[in-house]
Design brief:
alpha/beta; Rossmann fold; 14 helices; TIM Barrel; 593 residues; 24% helix; four-stranded parallel sheet
């Protein structure tokens, strides 16, 4: 379903673990809260509730029942009453958290800047405004920036306003402009913690920069770090999966799958989308061996080299009789091999049509590896249906429009955006050749032996794979990338080991849980279909009670955070599958405040 257009569409949470998100509907900027802020809170499973200052005064009693206060409506802070700011800062000094994404520190918001040791740079104490085209990570020694071990400079699509300030005292600078102007800062305030962003919250809109592009971990970790502990959120665990497509029938014999076993040495459980008629008897034995040992998942991708299963051919879409025969052939092949096919549709060239939908439903295929609706061939016109959480066609965890038949589990690197040419605001064409140059989303494309090069560039491939994986994890989606058999066949077993070892070395600070794509899909659907309805500290903070609503078909992992020194860390608390509701209690971790 498309991303909602109103803040009230999101489920809110009761209890003193939740954060308060302030807004004021009297000002038009509140309409930007969904794409900039609430979409991320919902995606990360951060329990929150809204306080609309247009109708509800902010009281000390409300602040006492919150882990943190979040401001993300532009210019809201300057318009707030002085009494509200006094109450917030008093609560922060008492142990509550404050995260202010509103860069406007004029008017009554000046006290927030002073609490963090920020001073304006203009004559006579005037706040000056500049702009940033790039944002740089100031260093990765702080909890909020700890995982930023990749590219430190983030190029924006459009410049955003930045308030110019000097920082003093124990304030940590998290990010800057290219000339060193602070963009995000964190500091202790009394017994509490506060984070101040000096870039406009328009930064988080897709036309400026957006989510799932390299700064999301600074966003959600700002809240986690500042919030009173214990703190709980229901986000995707750091799952990593690798996906491989065989479009041209290069995987035939058992030896062709040897690279899968090398990936198993590094803990991976790949999903291999195969060319069905290319598999020999020897290949079938290896496929079954890997499947039974749960070392690889298999899905049908093409019937024969370049031949679509789910759409049509050069003459146009298949008729229903042809589609039925195709699916019967696929099912018979997998039954003959003794292998259960993946429930995730891997449609060659993102091509499928409405006629195949009933056949897929009947055969238990209910997930999608891409975001196209059943609307034809790669070269046809496609609709941008703005999937949740961010309305992005690159990172999506959402049901296709029209029902709940297919759930999309998609994490293509955002350079996939460059493969789309928009005809209008809602419709686009894919570039027929896919990605170009350095903006390829296949981690081996252009880097293996072929027309462009004589040798495999393992260093570049490892960096691309690490970059793709890191971004998915930092954005709390899932990590990993995709490649294709016409590239994998160029690597020897030793080269695969060197590539995977180097990719691991490039991510020294990222927790990773390698799993199969099937598990990622079912977990993601269960995460999306549930929410934290209530989260509260009990017995003077010694225990935590969490109430969830919805339906989960697999156990969910709650992140439970505690303060550790100047930082934070988490453990997982497991919630069993449920339908309707589930209440769990657990001991609060040490390091609460």
């Amino acid at each position: 379903m498309p991303i909602p257009d109103t803040p009230d569409a999101y489920a809110q949470a009761m209890g003193d673990v939740a954060v308060l998100v302030l807004l004021d509907r009297r000002f038009p900027e509140h309409r930007l809260l969904v794409p900039s802020t609430l979409s991320l809170l919902d995606h990360c499973g951060i329990p929150f509730r809204l306080v609309d200052l247009a109708s509800t005064p902010l009281t000390r009693e409300a602040l006492a029942q919150a882990s943190a206060v979040v401001l993300a409506q532009e210019h809201l802070g300057a318009a707030m009453e002085a009494e509200a700011w006094h109450a917030i800062l008093e609560a922060v000094r008492g142990g509550m958290g404050l995260v202010n994404f509103d860069y406007d520190l004029e008017g009554n918001a000046a006290g927030a800047g002073e609490a963090l040791g920020l001073m304006p740079t203009g004559r006579g104490g005037a706040w000056l405004t500049d702009s940033a085209e790039k944002i740089e990570i100031a260093g990765n020694g702080h909890y909020i920036t700890w995982a930023q071990d990749g590219v430190a400079r983030k190029r924006l699509k459009m410049p955003v306003p930045v308030r110019l300030a000097r920082a003093a005292g124990p304030t940590a600078v998290l990010a800057t402009t290219t000339d060193g102007t602070p963009v995000a800062l964190a500091a202790p305030v009394g017994r509490g913690r506060a984070v101040q962003w000096l870039a406009s919250p328009k930064l988080w809109l897709r036309q400026y920069f957006g989510h799932a592009r390299g700064l999301d971990d600074l966003f959600w970790k700002s809240i986690v770090w500042a919030a009173r502990k214990p703190f709980v959120m229901k986000a995707m665990p750091p799952f990593v999966r690798l996906r491989f497509d065989d479009c041209h029938g290069h995987w035939r014999n058992g030896a062709d799958f040897r690279f899968i076993e090398v990936l198993n040495e590094f803990g991976h459980v790949p999903n291999a989308s195969i060319c069905v008629r290319a598999i020999t008897e020897d290949g079938a034995r290896k496929v079954k061996e890997l499947h039974v040992a749960r070392r690889c998942e298999f899905s049908p991708h093409t019937l024969a080299p370049g031949v679509s299963i789910f759409w049509g051919d050069q003459n146009g879409p298949y008729d229903e009789a042809t589609l039925r025969r195709n699916l019967e052939e696929v099912v018979a092949a997998f039954q003959r091999w003794g292998v259960r096919y993946s429930p995730i549709l891997s449609d060659h060239d993102h091509s499928w049509g409405p006629a195949v939908v009933p056949f897929l439903r009947a055969r238990g295929i209910r997930y999608k590896m891409n975001i196209t609706e059943p609307d034809g061939h790669w070269n046809d016109v496609h609709r941008d249906w703005r999937p949740a959480p961010y309305g992005s066609m690159d990172y999506a965890l959402d049901y296709l429009p029209g029902g709940r038949d297919f759930f999309v589990v998609f994490n293509h690197y955002p350079t996939f955006e460059y493969a789309r040419a928009y005809l209008d605001a809602d419709h686009f064409l894919y570039n027929r050749a896919g990605g170009y140059g350095e903006v390829k989303w296949d981690f081996l494309n252009g880097l293996t032996r072929g027309p462009a090069r004589a040798e495999n560039d393992l260093e570049a491939a490892a960096r691309r794979l690490a970059d793709h994986t890191r971004l998915g994890l930092d954005s709390l989606f899932f990590g990993g990338s995709i490649t294709h058999s016409h590239f994998t066949k160029e690597l020897t077993e030793d080269e695969w080991r060197r590539l995977m070892r180097r990719a691991d070395e490039l991510m020294p600070r990222h927790e990773r849980i390698p799993v199969g794509y099937d598990h990622v899909a079912e977990y993601a659907r269960s995460k999306v279909d549930t929410h934290i309805a209530d989260a509260a500290r009990e017995k003077r903070g010694e225990a935590v009670r969490v109430v969830l609503r919805g339906e989960a078909t697999v156990p969910l992992k709650l992140y439970v955070f505690r303060d550790v020194g100047d930082g934070a860390e988490h453990r997982y608390e497991e919630v069993p599958p449920f339908r309707g509701g589930q209440e769990v209690r657990f001991t609060a971790p040490a390091g609460s405040r």
